[in-house]
Design goal:
The structure is a single chain. This protein is an alpha/beta fold and about 675 residues long. The chain has three domains: about 50-165, Nucleic acid-binding proteins (OB fold (Dihydrolipoamide Acetyltransferase, E2P)); about 265-455, P-loop containing nucleotide triphosphate hydrolases (Rossmann fold, 3-Layer(aba) Sandwich); about 465-635, Rossmann fold (3-Layer(aba) Sandwich), CATH 3.40.50. It contains 19 helices and 23 strands. The strands form four sheets. The chain has an eight-stranded mixed sheet, with helices on both faces. Strands 6-7-4-3-2-5-8 form a seven-stranded mixed sheet, with no helix packed on it. A six-stranded parallel sheet has the order 18-23-22-19-21-20, with helices on both faces. β15, α10 (about 415-420) and β16 form a beta-alpha-beta unit. The protein is globular, with a radius of gyration of 30 Å.
């Protein structure tokens, strides 16, 4: 770790004022692209990984299943030209510097990077990082990270003979000058110049300054984890403070109880042809208690595909409209909004509750029985729609009292707030069929109470999932024909709408003609996101009513479409989807009593995809799949817009830091209570 010296530098000292910057324009432009303007910016620019240059990896004699860090010398360089314009490669033959395997050589190879012929020279010493694989004559590493070792003595101190940081870079800024700059800053910046950050009590055993230094230049690899956890705890505390602030603001405006006497709910549940699951009954009780309280509800209802969230939403709506206010249900797509409209219209018409539909292209209202004693049994109305609900067209005559947001992670924070802002002290029930790992729920939904539907309704057929190759399309088509002949229906899902020159993956529009031919004698439909609302509605209505046997589709069918007779789904190029999205897609089948089949077709040139997807063959447990999806893809891609606007998490491990999240919640609540 760099030794500190007394210095007038502070965290806010501009880099230009330190005298450490190189005079060249490219270095300054590179620093600007990375947003590094001050000393603090520089030392908060953390490495993406570390290399232990006190001892390098053993020189490879064959392919390996991991990347290696090697100290090598260049023995030969050459540029090779292949067939076709622009097809050339540059190769550097290298051997180890000192140590074992002397005389053994491997090839470093880069494609279409001709400038490298001016960078490398025989006799240079390099540090390289990459994964060895078998070549025609020698072991090869394609496109390794590399660093040319030029200096000895004091100038080499930041770069060799220690655990060395490897930083994210920008064009014009090399690894060595950036590393040297940060090393000099860490040497000259005293600990007291580093802001301590949030008070963490016992959780801050390692000081912030010590953690920052260890994350750049640890004495051992074992020092990295305590330093990461110290800064991760700080991030989690900042996150929890923001979530507590949101929760406090929502509740500070006060509220009124919006829970009717429950007569409509009792009639509704009594008339159902099935009994709610225990999880649904528990969630309804939690929602009812929230609506009866004098503070606004902020509840997240999460459940696996088909767990029955819509029934819980119906209970919330009936209790709210019976109290005299209007309710809104916002869905992310017109198809889903229209399906909800049909469902709630059929459920609520006998109860005398008006249901209206409002989307970008349609406005419709249910008709109540003219001579029914139950007509207008509730003064409140349910409005179902898409984004049109928060564009000022809704006109909540009785005042918006309850907002139900379906597939809420599809909406940004601003969109949800735009809907809730149309009423006073609005009760909020957010729903998602994307199971959220427990740590993620604790970390990113701390402003919400959570209800979990962890039971599936009885009477669902068995669902079998299998991973196959796209080259087995004819066998898949034969299987689909068997299912259609038995009276079932099928989805055939593609990742794209149209063919793309840049992406080698199937497209629904091109596949439609092929499947019409393969399934000759059966009625084949096409649906995708660029169709207008009326056309999509016509196609889905035809499929739902059995007028279409097989539906070629994109992921527009991912959310909410319910066709119990559909028992077969082929998903082409499944390697292009996340696990959670594939789980959502296959949730469109297995909703009836028939045995169902989901076939994930993958590119034969991507054998690792089959291994990644095997968990979908093993389980239908959405929470287990969500955990694995988080592990494979990382939190950034999984979260998407779930809780946009929250502080960034750079050090947190959202799969493994459950204890830290709970500790951060305790610290944040203590800080908030101390201010009251």
């Amino acid at each position: 770790m760099p030794q500190r010296t007394s210095s007038p530098w502070s965290f806010d000292t501009p880099l230009e004022a330190t005298g450490l910057l190189r005079p060249d324009r490219k270095t300054r432009e590179g620093l600007a692209k990375l947003g590094l303007a001050t000393m603090g910016d520089a030392i908060l620019h953390f490495p993406r990984r570390h290399e232990d240059r006190t001892r390098f990896d053993r020189f490879p004699e064959g392919a390996m299943d991991r990347a290696v860090c090697l100290h090598v010398a260049v023995t030969d360089c050459r540029t090779l030209f292949g067939r076709g314009r622009g097809r050339r490669s540059f190769e550097a033959v290298v051997e180890p510097v000192g140590g074992d395997a002397l005389g053994n050589r491997i090839v470093l190879r880069w494609f279409n990077l001709p400038y490298l012929s001016k960078v490398f020279a025989v006799g240079q010493r390099l540090v390289i990082y990459g994964q060895p694989k078998e070549g025609k004559r020698r072991v090869v590493i394609d496109h390794p990270d590399f660093e040319i070792i030029e200096e000895d003595g004091a100038d080499a101190a930041p770069h060799m003979g220690r655990i060395v940081p490897v930083y994210p870079l920008a064009a014009g800024l090399g690894q060595r000058p950036l590393r040297a700059l940060i090393h000099r800053i860490l040497e000259g910046l005293p600990d007291e110049a580093v802001p301590e950050g949030l008070p963490l009590g016992e959780g801050g055993e390692v000081s912030r300054a010590a953690a920052i230094r260890a994350l750049h230049y640890p004495a051992t690899m074992e020092e990295l984890e305590p330093a990461r956890r110290r800064l991760a705890l700080e991030e989690f505390v900042a996150l929890q403070l923001e979530l507590l602030r949101r929760r406090s603001e929502h509740r500070a405006c006060g509220g009124v109880a919006r829970c009717g006497p429950g007569r409509l709910l009792e009639r509704f549940l009594a008339d159902l042809p099935f009994a709610p699951t225990g999880a649904q009954t528990r969630a309804i009780a939690e929602v009812r208690a929230d609506l009866a309280a004098p503070v606004p509800m902020v509840r997240l209802l999460q459940g696996d595909v088909g767990a029955g969230k819509t029934l819980v939403a119906a209970a919330a709506v009936l209790l709210a409209v019976e109290s005299g206010c209007d309710a809104a249900l916002m869905a992310p797509t017109q198809i889903l909004a229209e399906q909800h409209f049909r469902t709630f219209r059929d459920w609520f018409a006998p109860l005398g509750v008006e249901v209206r539909l409002l989307t970008g292209s349609r406005e419709e209202s249910s008709e109540l029985p003219l001579f029914s004693a139950t007509a207008r049994a509730a003064s409140g109305t349910l409005l179902i729609g898409t984004h049109a609900l928060f564009h000022g067209r809704a006109g909540f005559e009785n005042g918006l009292g309850l907002a139900v947001i379906d597939e809420q992670h599809k909406f940004g924070v601003a969109q949800r707030e735009a809907l809730v802002g149309q009423g006073e002290s609005v009760e909020v029930l957010a729903m998602t069929a994307t199971p959220i790992p427990r740590t993620l729920t604790l970390a990113c939904y701390g402003d919400l109470d959570v209800s979990i539907l962890d039971e599936l309704p009885a009477g669902r057929g068995k669902l079998i999932t299998g991973v196959r190759l796209t080259t087995q399309t004819e066998q898949a088509a034969a299987f689909v024909r068997e299912q259609l002949a038995a009276g079932r229906q099928a989805y055939i899902v593609y990742p794209l709408i149209d063919e793309s020159d840049k992406v080698a993956a199937g497209a629904a529009t091109a596949a439609f003609a092929e499947w019409s031919e393969r399934l000759a004698g059966h009625r084949v439909g096409l649906i995708h996101g660029r169709m207008d609302g009326e056309e999509k509605d016509r196609v889905m209505s035809g499929f739902r009513q059995g007028q279409i046997d097989a539906l070629v589709a994109t992921t527009v069918i991912e959310v909410g479409v319910d066709v119990p007779n559909a028992n077969t789904m082929l998903i082409y190029h499944a390697e292009r989807f996340g696990l959670a999205q594939l789980h959502q897609l296959r949730g469109r089948i297995g909703r009836g009593e028939h045995k169902s089949y989901c076939v994930l077709l993958v590119d034969p040139e991507q054998p690792e995809a089959r291994e990644r997807l095997c968990i979908l063959e093993e389980t239908r447990d959405g929470f287990r799949i969500a955990d694995e999806d988080l592990r494979q893809r990382g939190p950034g891609e999984v979260l998407g817009t779930m809780q946009s606007g929250l502080p960034d998490l750079r050090f947190a491990d959202l799969l493994g830091d459950t204890r830290l999240v709970m500790e951060a919640r305790r610290i944040a609540e203590g800080m908030v209570d101390g201010k009251r």
